[in-house]
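Hey L., structure's done. Input below.
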Amino acid sequence: MTANSRDHAHSHEPMDELRGASIRALTVAMVMKLGYMLVDIVGGVLAGSLSLLAHAGHMFTDAASIGLALFAVHFAARAATAHRTFGYHRAEILAALVNALTLWVVSTLVLIEAYDRITGGIAGDHDHDVEGGLMLIIGAIGFGINALVAWMLHASARHSVNVEAAYRHVIADLLGSVAVVVSAILVWAYDWDVADPISGAVVAILILLSTWRLLAKVIHVLLEGVPEHVDVYSLCSRIEELAGVTVIHDIHVWTLTPGYEALTAHVLVDPEHDEDHDAMLDRIRHIAYEDFGIEHITIQLETSAADCSEDHHVDHLMATAAS
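Output:
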């Protein structure tokens, strides 16, 4: 058993408790974001700051992403039906995908605007009269609010890729607040207006880089890849070490939604082994759940593989032999 599987095995928490904590954190975060968005708009108009107005737009995007996350969390709690036997767990993954792609769109637009303002400033085509002092005050307040919201969402982000998407929106906005503060100081102290679009471009690039990992995780889940904490070779070996088990094959491990993994497998057992099959199933489920953190477990016991029409991939045996 790997260290990751042990860590995960001892971190079982009821899905309802995790979902409830996520909803509370997301709700408070959305209210704070909308409140500060209004401050950004008023401050941007009074200070003549395009940076603050753009930041207000980013805050609105954050609030919308959090609202989408809340919708997905509520939707994912709906019961399974005859038409959707796994329920709506994937709603959270789809919301995370939308949020990640939205961040990429916003970052691209920021880069385009930054390029236009930088080239325009160099050519002398753009002349903005910005009140650096007011911009600095509002940017500092925004930094404090974003830091608080990021702290609130951090714990829930570890259990939900959907909340993680909203969390990364907030981190991106936190970086945006830093950019506003830095550019405000340069504008206020040195009258260097071009600092504003330069800092915006840097933040946009950081957003793209930080969102790539989230997007990769979402795509991995949608492609039904093996969860990061599950070592399939180790899982197969543990099950095949049980008395009466000949080989495990046709094994599939995937993530329905982060924190809720599924396993299906066929287990070939020795027909001469006299242990009750129910007892053997209990031992297999115990390994999968307690040692590897897999909750949805479906095992088919067979005494012969002759009538099994499924894919008999057993590459874990070749990996074990190679090692």
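The CA atoms of residues 192 and 244 lie 76 Å apart. The beta strands are 245-257, 260-269, 296-302.

-- N.
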